[in-house]
Amino acid sequence: MATTAGHAPADQGHATPEQPHHMKPALMGMLLFIGSEVMLFASLFTAYFFIRYGVANETWPPLKQDGEPFELPVVLTGVNTLILVSSSFTLWWGEKRLAAGDNKGLIRGLWVTILMGATFLLIQLNEYAHLGFTPQDRAFSGAFYTLTGFHGAHVLVGLIVLSLCLRRAYQRDFSATYHTPLTAGSYYWHFVDIVWVLLFFLVYVI
Amino acid sequence: MLFAFLLLFLLRALFGFEPLYDGAVYGGVAGLIGAIGFLWGIGCFDFWLGWAKGADISEEDHSFHGVSNWKQYFRVNTDHKVIGLQYLGATLFFMLWGGLMALLIRTELAAPGQQFADGETYNGFLSMHATLMIFVFAVPVFGGIANYVLPIMLGAKDMAFPRLNALSFWFLPVAGFMFLASMFTGMFGAAWTAYPPLASQGTMGQTLFELGIQFAGASSIATAINFLATIVTMRAPGMTIWRMPILAWATGVTSVLAVFATPFIAGSQFLTMFDRIMGTHFFVPDQGGDVIMYQHIFWFYSHPAVYIMLLPGFGIISEIIATFARKPLFGYRAMAFSLVAIAVLGFGVWAHHMFVSGMAAWLRVPMMVTTIIIAVPTGVKMWSWLATLWQGRIHMKTPMLWAMGFLFTFLLGGLSGVFLGIVPADIQMSDTYFVTAHLHYVLYGGTVFTVFAGLYYWFPKMTGKMYNERLGQWHFWLTFAATQLTFFPMHWQGLQGMPRRVSDYDPRFETVNSIETVGSYMLGIATIIFFYNIITSWKSGPKAPWNPWRGKTLEWMVSSPPPLFNFDVEPQVVGGPYQYGIPDARHAVVFAPEEFGGELTEDTRYPVLVVANETLTSQTLIDEIRSRDSEGLWSFQLVAPVGDGDRSTTERRLATALAILAESGVSATGRVAEGDMVSVATEAAAEVAPQELVIATLPLAQSRWMQTDSVDKVRKATGVAMSHVIVPPNDARALLATAALPLVMVVATEAVGAEALATAVRTRADAQPARFTVVTPLDLPEPRWGAEANELRRAAGEAMTATINALVNTGVAVDGEVMDDGADVALPLAIDAYRPSVIIVAGINGEAAGLRAAAEAAAGETPVESVNLGAAAGA
User: Fold this and answer.
1) Under a CB-based contact definition with an 8 Å cutoff, are residues B317 and B406 in contact?
2) Nearest beta carbon to residue B278 from set A26, A135, A167
3) Chain A positions in Cβ-Cβ contact with residue B15 (cut-off 8 Å)
4) Best to test chain B binding among A32, A40, A168 (most B CBs inside 10 Å)
5) How far apart are CA B627 and CA B633, in angstroms?
6) How many CB pairs under 8 A join A and B?
7) Which residues in chain A touch residue B591, judged by CB atoms under 8 angstroms apart?
8) For domain B606-733, which architecture applies?
9) Per-residue pLDDT for A24 more than 90?
């Protein structure tokens, strides 16, 4: 077949090397999605800070409708924070095992991560049950439940994504060279963790 | 669904909500589940569900790709071209509904007092109008155009995530129908801005609004992510970011805005929704809530959203202006950077919507400053468009008309925006019709006009059919006039203090309001023309060529409509996208497999009409034609009107010009036409329907066409894009230095000045186009500086001038020289200098013999002929 300068012959098409400067579209898509998620949380944090600082003549923590101040279980949640943050490291460890070609290690890492994430969610739900105020209390409680609730929903999504990855890992679908869905899922999980650390400090601690 | 209701009931019972049954809540849940069920049912999630189930699915499964009949446009499809058309269909459908609402609003406002809608209903109409127009027309419609065009422009086979693309499209009808459904549940009446506490009250419709926004927002974010991934990772080889068409820049920048700003409106609507259905107190001040907070969050999205609705339009206009002005886009990089600058600044201006809201006062001045600074990058764009038009060869086809309408309308909108950006002025004009005028000028100019420009521009590419140009122009002029009629008086109304969003008004505004209502009905009629045009043209319009506008970007290098995967072989980009008028410049090389003929180039040549007479053989005109020829596939039709001149003179000039063009490889034909220039040019233009009309004349002082204003008359009569080439008189008469024509050297002494010589040369020129040079060797007496010699020189010079004038005025390309030597000295020098292809010795009777001997001695290989002009010639 005749070829012309500047034109790769069609029969070499399948052997086109990956262009190194091109990022994988899926990972880029995930990063952009995370970017928009960051902005979603930013809008909720904006609401929270307006309620916290924008309204005059309020003590902090503000008072509930029954006149008592809002109290948040900082220590228990701190422990819970540690659990969630460690789960990021266990996931990282799993990915490292996979990079070394150890699929079993990946499965172990995923299991531990998922279990820790689930523990975090359960402790959060337990906390909801014992907080002593509902979203319908004052504006602060609404902001608190919205922020933590949105985060909890994200943890749930992250758990679902990681579970799907786990299933794939059992099918030996991932290898040291191909692991795009897993990487995308782990980006998401790290994002969820980082948001929580921020949330913990901004809402619980200060 | 039943299960969900049960769950909801139990949950509400569990947490002690009162009352247990609340229509808005149940309706909201029903809407949400219905929407997801719909998306699931039509198969949006099939692939991912398959993946989740671990089924054996193939990435290369294209079963959802492409359409074979029109019904498939209503199904899930992963082909970006189909999705683009689905987007356009859906958004135009919602535009019709939004337009209907606008007509209802204008009908109610036609006279003071209540016509047919009470305040509540009126609020519903205006909220529905704005919501439909903004969230399911203005924002996503560019997604439709870019979905179709952008992957092809970048040289990609599809978007980066085709299945996500399908999903993000199908979010859109969900959102739109949620808005529309609210008409049956009590319309939402808090306008598109949905400020609490108004939005915290109201009917079920308000909840549907909040849900609909979530779907529209999700659609917007998903599409934006898709565009960005496509632009970053899917560009063809050689397509550096500085070779991308400006539309790609605009879409990329817009997508960044959409990804990072849209979550804010999602957040704001979540909060109002929670206030409405969960009983939170975000916007209840006595419970510690904050109403201003909503406005901050809302405008942090909704101001960038204005740019989401404008920037892609800017991109479209840049494409169209460069193409139809046949010039490289002025300031390409400035255009790209100004887009980025607008987007970056756009994040820092949101509170200018809130100058009168009671927000923190210190925010006002910074927001005013950033707002006004945005006029700078926008001005850069405006001037760049104007500079692109400057001295371009403008083709006033329908897309270009819309682009011009955009420049005018958007300029007015932008200027009133500067007024509103200034705090004291804004405090005066806030919530008056001045704001209504401003935003409609901006959105009509920046969105409606650009969308129509883009639709007409790419209609041939999308459908493979040409639209009706006459109807398109009618559509434009009617819309343009009606836009000004409807919205311009609103400036005055606003300054006089008429508040917006109110269904009644002071009777002194009656006249303006009825004028505006008439204007809005005209807009409705124009829209009917548009739909009639596109529907009938799509069904039975003439077949569109690949590249009807002679565009340079990649989408014009594939067929109309493009093949299923756009390119059979990856295209290779080799240059910038707007190199109009630059000889031999190419944007890209597109290849097809051998069986389709290798390189994909078109062979249809489009006609360019050239009208000239005295200037036909000038270097200036020939160069103009050659430069056009190197730029695209044109066939040149030369028409030489005889006027009251001599026909054979014109024929000679035409023959010379055609011979030169043929030698340059230019495809050109020509004819001499009887009659005056205006009628000849007009008839020829009607006959060949040229892409461009080139008229060449001498400067005003020498040109009879110019003196009778014929050039302008033709411009008006034909309406074709026209170039006027002014040829310097010397150039029109000068002998062309070209190898195209044989050079005939005429050697004569006594015969010079005689009419017989001129006749002989003309006869020769009629037989075969040639250039002539007349040489007179002058055997001067000694001393050569003497009076006698000088007298001889003068006489010979006069005779030579007379001959040359006689010949040039009858269309022969000729010059001449008197040489200060006898034939045996002069002729070898002359032959060496001119290198003629033939030498003709012209003499009167016996006198020629000596000349001929000298010529033959000097000629070498060159043939020498003799002409005997006869005894009579000497008299």
Assistant:
1) yes
2) A135
3) 134
4) A32
5) 11
6) 152
7) 4, 7
8) 3-Layer(aba) Sandwich (3.40)
9) no
Which residues touch B337 (CB under 8 Å, ≥6 apart)?
Answer: B377
Please give the structure tokens belonging to residue B314. Answer: 């800017």
What pLDDT was estimated at residue B15? 55
Q: Which domains does chain A have, with CATH numbers?
A: 81-206 (1.20.120.80)
Asked if B802 reaches chain A (Cβ–Cβ under 8 Å), the answer is no
Q: Which of residues 263-292 of B touch A (CB under 8 A)?
A: 263-264, 266-268, 270-271, 274-275, 278-282, 284-285, 287-290, 292
**How far is the C-alpha of A108 from the C-alpha of A87, rounded, in Å?**
12
Residues of A in contact with B292 (CB under 8 A): 50, 54
β-strand partners of B639: B611, B671
Alpha helices, H only, B347-468: 364-373, 375-389, 398-421, 423-429, 433-443, 450-463
B589-595: list long-range contacts, CB under 8 Å, 24+ apart. B589/A4, B589/A6, B589/A7, B590/B554, B590/B557, B590/B558, B591/A4, B591/A7, B592/B568, B593/A10, B593/B568, B593/B569, B594/A1, B594/A2
The domain B71-540 having CATH identifier 1.20.210.10: the answer here is yes
Predicted pLDDT at B334: 95
Contact B203, B185 (CB under 8 A): yes
More confident residue, B32 or B640: B640
Instruction: Convert the pLDDT of each residue in B758-774 to its tens digit.
Output: 888 888 888 888 888 89
Chain B contact set for A143 (CB, 8 A): 282
Task: Count the alpha carbons within 13 Å of B170 in the hemisphere toward its beta carbon.
Answer: 23
Q: Test B263 with A168 for CB contact under 8 angstroms.
A: no
**Inter-chain residue contact A164 with B260, CB threshold 8 Å:** no
Once rounded to an integer, what is the mean pLDDT over residues B664-676? 87
Average pLDDT in the A172-189 region? 89
pLDDT at position B88 is 96
CB contact under 8 A, A139 and B287: yes
Q: Do B290 and A55 touch (CB under 8 A)?
A: yes
**Tokens 């739909």 found at:** B531
Question: CA B256, CA B343: separation in Å to the nearest integer?
Answer: 8
- B298 contacts chain A (CB < 8 A): no
Fold topology of B743-874: Rossmann fold (3.40.50)
- Check: CB of residue B142 under 8 Å from CB of residue B134: no
* B54 to A167: CB separation less than 8 angstroms, yes or no: yes
B362 and chain A in contact, CB less than 8 A: no
CA angle B756, B757, B761 (to 5 degrees): 115
pLDDT category at A5 given cuts 50, 70, 90 is: very low
On the question of pLDDT at A1 being above 60, the answer is no
Provide the residue ranges of all domains of chain B, joining segments of one domain with +. 1-57, 71-540, 606-733, 743-874
Name the DSSP class of B773: E
Q: Kindly list the strands in the beta sheet with B743-748, ordered across the sheet, starting from the edge strand earlier in the chain.
A: B813-819, B771-777, B743-748, B838-843, B864-868
Tell me the mean pLDDT in the region B103-111.
Answer: 93
Query: pLDDT band at B16, cuts 50/70/90?
Result: low
pLDDT above 70 (res A75):
yes
> Nearest by CB to A29, which of B225, B279, B574?
B225
B606-733 matches B743-874 in fold? yes
* Dihedral sign (CA A183, A186, A192, A195): negative
Say yes or no for a CB contact (<8 Å) between A43 and B266. yes
- Please check the confidence at residue B454 and state whether its pLDDT lies above 90: yes
ipTM above 0.90, yes or no: no
Taking the CA of residue B368 and the nearest CA in chain A, the distance in Å comes to 22
Do residues B645 and B803 lie in contact, with contact meaning Cβ atoms separated by under 8 Å?
no
Name the DSSP letter for residue B851. Answer: H
B234 contact A CB<8A: yes
